[in-house]
Structures are given as structure tokens and as C-alpha cells.
Write a structure and sequence with these properties.
Elements: E1 4-7, E2 12-15, E3 23-28, H1 39-57, E4 61-66, H2 73-82, H3 86-103, H4 119-131, E5 135-138, E6 141-144, E7 181-186, E8 201-203, H5 205-217, E9 221-227, H6 231-246, E10 251-257, E11 260-262, E12 265-266, H7 277-283, H8 286-293, E13 302-304, H9 306-328, H10 346-356, H11 361-384, H12 388-408, H13 415-449, H14 453-465, E14 468-472, E15 477-481
Parallel strand pairs: 3-4, 3-9, 9-10, 11-13
Antiparallel strand pairs: 1-2, 5-6, 6-7, 7-8, 11-12, 14-15
Helix pairs in contact: 2-3, 4-5, 4-6, 5-6, 8-9, 9-11, 9-13, 10-11, 10-12, 11-12, 13-14
Length: about 475
Amino acid sequence: MALRIYNSLGRKKEPFETIEPGKVRMYVCGPTVYDSCHIGHARSVVVFDVIFRYLQALGLEVTYVRNFTDVDDKIIKRANELGIPAQELADRYIDEFYQDMDALNVKRATIEPKATQHIDQMITVIERLFEKKLAYTVDGDVFFSVAQFDGYGKLSGRRLEDMEAGARVDVDKRKRNPFDFVLWKAAKPNEPFWESPWGKGRPGWHIECSAMSSTYLGQSLDIHGGGKDLTFPHHENEVAQSEAAFDKPFVRYWVHNGFVNINSEKMSKSLGNFLMVKDVLKKYHPETVRLFLLSNHYRSPIDFTDKALDESATALDKIYALLKRIADTGHWPQELHNEEQRPQGDIWKRFGGALDDDFNTAGGIGVLFESVRRLNRLLDQCNDRPDPQIASALSADTADLLRLGSILGIMGQTPEAYFEQTRAHQANLQSADSEEIERLIAQRNAARKDKNWAEADRIRDQLGAMKVVLEDKPDKTVWRFEA
């Protein structure tokens, strides 16, 4: 197989070889459902959605498992603040996750398990660790003993003797080693709990993924993925507990996607720059968001800015404008949805060459736009001089282009539906913008009346950033968009 994947474990690209010929076992860490999904979540989900689609396009049978963490400190805290059961809160945000990801044209994973439905499996794994003397209990809490596992730190490249507690690791003086991690937490008041051999309690975060992945995919996986921030301690701890429990290599290929920055700053709640998916989709077409999220290599960071999203929107318009030209000239390919019809054209081969190099969607999108330019030139020739050979090439290349789109998760609409939707969306945005502008002008006029010149200037600057030009007249303030 030509596909090569960058393996975080070996820190290099390696040829992709599955444990079982023709089959792929892939597990990706899903969301902890205590709040709405932000654009960082979307990047990870969209990246692995494309990996899932491409592996299937290669003819591989992929079993893709993506979990929901539906019991967790953050979920319990938020539910208690709202005065509702933790499971009710978790289910609410699972439903919202599906709404967001369905809008982004994300395919459902093969299996999407919830942590709370796999408590028995987690207890079984913990019991195996006790049998091997790799787990111990303190006051009803159960910890994994990292010093007893040879190779702790091999995924993240860290050594126990070089690490300091406090950096992404809970400090607990009851632990034998500061880096020992919790497998089972003793029950506290006003928290959900389950019965276990160690008393009432609930699972730690790390154990759930080892239990669910082994339940559905076996004790060794082909691919395990997630955001780069999960490498340590979450994935490192998964390696330790899984390999200790099952005496087998846990994962062949570790795949980690990079972060989303907001206007060149790290996205964080402390900076107040978290962008929720549902809010981004109010402003941009879902395919525009997908195209943007895939425009950089998945391992690299990507900077979310209005300029970058506007450029992706313009690029998507060009793709659909080409599709409309092709449809209007009658060169639309037949039997596009025949799954047995494998693409063999030059466009597909070059696109596949890009994705075979560690799922390089940026390179694949480059092939897409080279093809758009070339097909527009072919259409120009057709208009000047109808040619059956050119018409045949257009039909074949369009079929390849649409299959390429099916991997990226774009070009899913007819051109007519796309342009109708974008026109309606722009009209709604302009209406919303007009209401906001009128509201700000009213606030500015009130500030001027109160001689609060600093506030009036601040609002003028805010409107200026929105490309709004103001003209103060004796009886009113009029406005227009900057030319």
C-alpha cells in the first residue's frame, strides 16, 4: 500500500500496514460533553472524518469507534450548577454535537459508545491491573502505578525522572508516585456512582478509552487518534494501562491533529476567544468551514480569521461556479454514485498521491484547484469549438472531481441549491448586521447626548472595524458600508 502515516510513537512517517489484511481498526477520542462544541473540536472530527472516508475509498473495511465521555468532573460540576442530573446535561450536549457535525457533513462513526454504558468493562480492565500488581487503592480511589510499567513515557517522549508534577498532572500526596493516575474515583456527595469491588464510585477518564476500544476493536488497534493536547497524559496513560492489562502492543499508528488558533492566539477560555461551531455556522456555509479546516496539513496549527474564512468562501464559490458551467453545457457524468466504479483519472491519482503522503489534505486541495482552473479552460475551448474528445474528458474529469469532493466532504449540493442557500444566507447576515449597526448608532447617539465622548469614539471605532462609514447630520446619523 502506498499510504504512509506520521506515527507519533516513532515520530516519523511509516508505511501503513494493518494488523488484519484489508481491515482497519480505528479509535478516536470523542468529546467530553459538558458544553457546546468549539471549532477546535470540529477540526479534529473533520480531520478523522476525511481519514475514515479515504481509507474506505482505498477499499479497506474500516471499523471506526469514536466515544463520548459522558461522566466527568466538568459534567458533574456544570450539572450541579444548573440543578439537573449529570446524564441529562451530557445527553443534551451529545444531541448538540450531532447537530453541529451533521451540519458539517461528518459521517457517523461505525460505533459511538458512551462511557456510562461500559462501566462493567472498565471494572474488568482495572481488576486485571490489580492481578498484575499494577494498581492500588487509597481511601476508595484506585491508582495505576506508573513505576511498575516499563516504558511509561514512550509515546510523549518523556521520562519519569525528568518530569515534574503539577504540569497537566493532578498533585495528590496519597500517590506512591506523583504521576500515578486514577483508574477509579470514590463516590462523593451529589455525584453519580456505580458499585465496584472498591466501593461506590465512578471511572477515571483514561480507563474508559482502553475499555471501549478493546470491547469493539480488540486489544490491539491499527490507528488511535485525537488532538495533539491528548498525547500527554491521556494517551500516554492509555498506552500504559492497556499494554499492562493485555500484554500486547496497544496501537500501531498514533495520529494527532494540530490546534486551531484564533487570530494568531491560542484558543482558550481565559482569553475569551472560544468559537463555538454553532456560532461559526451562523456566518459561514458548512462546506466553507470544512474547506478551511482542511486547508492546512492536519498536524500543523491553523489560524482561524475572518479573512481566511472569507477566502475559503470565495474558493468554494469558484468550485460551484465550475460545476454549474459543466451542468449547463451538458457534460455532467453519469452513474456518479456507483460504488463499484473506482476513479482512475489523473485528477484522482494526483489527489490520492497527496493523501497517501500522511493524509495531506492541503496538497489534495491544491490538486482540486489546479483541476478547477484546467476544467474552466477546457470549457472555454468547448464554447469556442465543440469537440467530442474534450466533452468526454470533461465528463470523466468531473466524475473524478466529485469523488474527490466526497472525500473532503464538499460539493455535496447541486450548484443551484448551493448558490440559492448562500444568497439567502448573505441576505440574513446583512439583515442581522443592519440591526446591529442601528443598535450601535443608537448607543453612540446616547453617549454623545451625555457628552461621553470616549464611549462615542469607542463605538465609532467598533463600527469602523465593521466597515461602516458614519455621517452625522443635524437631525440624525446616516451610515453606509465602506466602498
